[in-house]
Amino acid sequence: MENNDIIKLENRVYKRPALLNEAHMHYCPGCSHGVVHKLVAEVIEELGLQERAIGVSPVGCAVFAYNYIDIDWLEAAHGRATAMATATKRLMPDKLVFTYQGDGDFAAIGTCESIHSCNRGESIAIIFINNAIYGMTGGQMAPTTLLGQKTATCPYGRCADLNGYPLSITPLLAQLDGTRYVTRQSVHTPANVRKTKAAIKKAFLNSMEGKGTSVVEVVSTCNTGWKLTPEKANKWMEENMFAKYPLGDLKDVDAKNE
Amino acid sequence: MAKIRGAVTVNTERCKGCNLCVVACPCDVLALMQKEVNDRGYHFAYMANPDKCIGCQSCALVCPDACIEVYRVVEK
Q1: Which residue range(s) make up the domain with B22?
Q2: A190 vs B71: CB contact, 8 Å cut-off?
Q3: Taking the domains of chain A in order of start, what are their residue ranges?
Q4: What is the DSSP string of A126-172?
Q5: Among A3, A8, A38, whose Cβ lies nearest the Cβ of B66?
Q6: Please, what is the average pLDDT of chain A?
Q7: Which whole number is the average pLDDT over A132-139?
Q8: Chain centroid to CA A233: how far?
Q9: Would you call A3 and B19 a contact, using CB atoms and an 8 Å cutoff?
Q10: What's the complex ipTM?
Q11: What is the tally of structural domains in chain B?
Q12: Which residues does chain B have within 8 Å of residue A27's beta carbon, measured at their own beta carbons?
């Protein structure tokens, strides 16, 4: 059987989600943002919420998310995405409201908003991309940067005496009563991509059912900021990031009740 | 025994040549085009060993630019 016989519409098992626009993504080659964008588009499409989804995009690399996924978007001030999502969800409770934030937005400048929206138990879904660096501004040290990791602003490696310790914010959020579902995933292998998709789906369903805040942290790579190839960045993440940020569900109220 | 055959199409203009699909492929089907580039100057991915493809979708799942579509048939 020739290739042309296989490539037919009726044999298609994986297609590009229709919600992704034709615009070329500005992300660097191999950036995890692209995979998560794709998953968000797929999940919204599967749930049939195209007309009811409102995303809140952050300041950071994902600032142009509104160019890529064909749903309604809001652009929040730096770090204030969860506050904006709170207002949106309260005014329009029948909408799917989610934020899409990086670690510089969610865990640095927006720590206050993030913690308090989770504590209030707003029914929003939070997608938190943690790549342990400020990617957009050129690879400076973030609160999530690992000890010993070299960045533009800590060229000899992060040291605890001078720069403090890396902030693992998701376990902190899991302790709050307002959160319904807190999980940490990654997108570096096909299996992990599938798990992340399931996690995002669950978070979106929780938001639609008004069950409380869901946080999906995606431990991801920034190969440009880390100065590695995409392939080596994935390996570096496996070897270094997962020790500080282990994958898995941190809190799932629904699982406990079953 | 029925044999599963797969094939992928790569949107070469969207591909950024990040090599992640090549690494993810369990059957060594994909490779980056060494001598050609697309309009943006990236070495795009292509099916170097089309006969080996089983249509497992691994490449499409990890592709950050969603430029891979997968087709699959069961040969009788």
Answers
A1: 3-75
A2: no
A3: 25-257
A4: EEEEE-SSBTTTTSB--TTPPTT--BTTBTT---HHHH-PPP-HHHH
A5: A38
A6: 94
A7: 92
A8: 18
A9: no
A10: 0.94
A11: 1
A12: 64
- In the block, which residue shows the tokens 């990654």? A186
Residue B1 has pLDDT above 90, yes or no: no
CATH 3.60.20.10 matches A25-257? no
Instruction: Say how far residue A257 (Cα) sits from the centre of its chain.
Output: 26
Residue A254's pLDDT is 87
Query: What pLDDT shows up at residue A3?
Result: 81
Distance from CA of A257 to the nearest CA of B (A): 32
The residue-averaged pLDDT of A90-97 equals 96
Alpha carbon distance A88, A140 (integer Å):
32
Is any Cβ of chain B less than 8 angstroms from the Cβ of A7? Answer: yes
**Of the partner residues A17, A24, A190, the one whose CB lies closest to the CB of residue B58:** A190
A38 and B6: CB-CB below 8 Å?
A: no
Closest CA to A254 of A218, A211, A215, A217: A211
- CATH code, domain with B68: 3.30.70.20
Q: How many residues does chain B have?
A: 76
CB contact, 8 Å: A162 with chain B? no
- As a whole number of angstroms, the distance between CA A213 and CA A210 comes to 9
Is the CB of B60 less than 8 angstroms away from the CB of A14? yes
Residues A181-209 have a mean pLDDT of 95
Are residues B66 and A32, on separate chains, in Cβ contact within 8 Å? no
Answer whether B17 touches A (CB < 8 Å).
yes
Helix H segments across chain A? 3-6, 32-47, 65-68, 81-91, 103-104, 111-120, 160-163, 169-174, 190-209, 223-226, 230-236, 242-244, 253-257
- pLDDT given for residue A79 in this prediction: 93
pLDDT of res. B2 = 77
Task: Please name the residue of chain B whose CA is at the shortest distance from the CA of residue A30.
Answer: B18
| pLDDT reported for residue B15 | 94
Confidence of residue A258 (pLDDT cuts 50, 70, 90): low
